[in-house]
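Changelog excerpt: complex records now keep ligands as SMILES alongside chain sequences, and the structure block spans every component. Example after the change:
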Amino acid sequence: MHSPRSHTAQVVGYYDAHPINEDQILRALSERGLDLDRITQDDLQTLDQDHYGGLEANDALISAAGIRPGHLVLDVCSGMGGPSRYVAHRIGCRVVGLDLTPSRYESAQRLTKRVGLDHLVSFRLGSALDMPFEDASFDVIMGQEAWCHVPEKPRLIAECARVLRPGGVIAFTDILRKAGLTESEMDRLRAEMTFPELGTLDGYAALLEEQGCRVERRDDLSAEWTRILVDRLAMYRGLGRETARKFGEGRSKDWDAYYTFFVGLYEAGKLGGGRFVARKGGD
Ligand SMILES: C[S@@+](CC[C@H](N)C(=O)[O-])C[C@H]1O[C@@H](n2cnc3c(N)ncnc32)[C@H](O)[C@@H]1O
């Protein structure tokens, strides 16, 4: 078993040396000939989404959750804030992003300021297991491909339900384990991808119901994600030289090995993906 402290340090280290990062995004924008002092949300949003399916996946969550202009949305594990900015910009609502990695939190703030969305989007540094928010503070909770890093899924879902107002919606996607994943494969995912434990379609649905949230949708995204992940591995290989320059040859090689193993588990049907939409009772 992991201790919570060492797991947090492991996640922070993983994201401090992630091939997708603020420098890499700014470099890509510069290479497109853009003046970095004048970039807009439309420029940035094609590069700052660290989940599967890009902006279409955000649109699917927005419509599944029914996010509207008056809503206050919490993005749990917001990373560099790509989805938070997208939702705020598209809908005109306010979004708060929560993340525990200081480098991600700082990048999120800088990128948001750079595109002039800081009047709608703000960030908090903190853990999804101990959220720095009052009960019933938010209309919608969202999350994408991040809760896989969070241990104690019952406590995570309980925290989400606590800070959600009655009648509010939790809408998220996540990496899931499927039948056939062995314990030694899970050990590798724990060590290499910092996934302490993985949810399942039934497991997350049961946790949501236990917290008084009626599950309105649970979509199996496994086939779609397997196709996306094969392309994503190619994208990371394209970034290999830049990753080596920034974090060293060893990190670039390790990343390639980790991701190849991870994508292989999708191709073998041992990992999958799910989208969940649940409404808190008591409205
Ligand atoms: C794959 S990124 C997802 C970012 C974002 N959802 C997106 O789509 O661009 C995962 C993020 O989860 C954060 N994270 C992991 N465990 C966390 C926890 N217990 N509490 C808060 N954030 C956490 C990491 O720091 C990282 O920034």
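The radius of gyration is 18 Å. The chain has one domain: 4-225+271-280.
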